Amino acid sequence: MINISVKDLDGQVHEIEAREGESLMETLRQHEWGVAAICGGLCSCGTCHVYIDEAWLDKLQQADSDEQDLLDEFDSLQANSRLSCQLPLLPVHDGLSLSIAPEE
Questions:
Q1: Which residues, other chains included, contact 68 with Cβ-Cβ below 8 Å and sequence gap of 6+?
Q2: Cα separation of 28 and 103, whole Å?
Q3: At 57, phi and psi to the nearest 5?
Q4: How far, in Å, CA of 85 to CA of 65, rounded?
Q5: What does residue 92 show for φ and ψ, rounded to 5 degrees?
Q6: Which residue in 82, 68, 94, 103 sits closest to 25, CA to CA?
Q7: Triad 3, 25, 99: Cα angle to 5°
């Protein structure tokens, strides 16, 4: 299991576990405080937007052009913004820390 620390929109921190190979979105949408993930992982809606702790950014694959184009549409865009549907979880991600971005 991969341990993840998630700060929700109310500022509460949750320690959760994820399965290797799942997308981060799949894990987060299982919780009522998690992401909506309306498109189900198709990188078309942005309702799985998260802020990755900066210490973890270099351990994730780079955003492709489709993900970056969608992120660029958000007023809440930050340098550490990612779409959780585009982040497959691997053992190297154990201890990952992130915050849920506000919905737009």
A1: none
A2: 14
A3: -60, -40
A4: 14
A5: -65, -15
A6: 82
A7: 65
* pLDDT per position as a tens digit, 65-93: 999 999 999 999 999 999 999 999 999 99
- Distance (Å, rounded) from C-alpha 29 to C-alpha 15? 14
Query: Whole-prediction pTM value?
Result: 0.95
Helix (H) or strand (E) holding 65: helix 65-71
In the block, residue with structure tokens 């959780």: 84
Q: Which fold has domain 2-100?
A: Ubiquitin-like (UB roll) (3.10.20)
Instruction: State which H helix or E strand residue 67 sits in.
Output: helix 65-71
SS3 73: coil
CB 45 within 8 A of CB 39: yes
pLDDT in tens, 25-43: 999 999 999 999 999 888 9
